[in-house]
């Protein structure tokens, strides 16, 4: 099954765009895209292969929703994702940060890893443009 793909251009260097995505995800990730928006207290990505991708919930504490598969500062982050999915059948998020000759960075998001175990939830993931807009607004602020 084809991955979900989106991209946007931001007025930042690849390192700045990467750092905002990885180090500041808890500041821009929309609470509505978590299991309990009222309990959302943040999110994090541990920037190393095998590192956790997690949410911080007021009641449950840290809730893991993925593991980092590949990471290179200023270039890419790839991790599994169980957010809104069966943890036994994670999907995969890949975010590439591509420098542009005219300045800025093209952020390329690919949400893939769809198979017979998780394909039935793929249609839930239509709001990536809204999430990316929030990320871009955070980066611009």
From TrEMBL:
Pfam families in UniProt: AHSA1
InterPro entries named among the record's database cross-references: ASHA1/2-like_C, START-like_dom_sf
Domain Activator of Hsp90 ATPase homologue 1/2-like C-terminal stretches: 12-137
Family recorded in the similarity comment: Belongs to the AHA1 family.
Protein's name in the database: Activator of Hsp90 ATPase homologue 1/2-like C-terminal domain-containing protein
Organism in which the protein naturally occurs: Cellulomonas xylanilytica
């Amino acid at each position: 099954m084809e991955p979900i793909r989106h991209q946007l251009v931001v007025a930042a260097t690849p390192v700045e765009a990467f750092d905002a995505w990885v180090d500041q995800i808890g500041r821009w990730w929309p609470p509505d895209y978590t299991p309990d928006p009222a309990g959302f207290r943040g999110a994090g990505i541990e920037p190393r292969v095998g590192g956790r991708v997690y949410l911080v919930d007021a009641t449950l504490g840290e809730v893991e929703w993925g593991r980092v598969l590949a990471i290179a500062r200023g270039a890419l982050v790839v991790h599994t994702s169980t957010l809104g999915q069966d943890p036994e059948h994670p999907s995969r998020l890949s975010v590439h940060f591509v420098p542009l000759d005219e300045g800025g960075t093209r952020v390329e998001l690919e949400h893939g890893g769809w198979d017979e175990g998780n394909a039935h939830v793929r249609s839930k993931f239509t709001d990536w443009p809204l999430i990316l807009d929030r990320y871009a607004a955070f980066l611009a602020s």
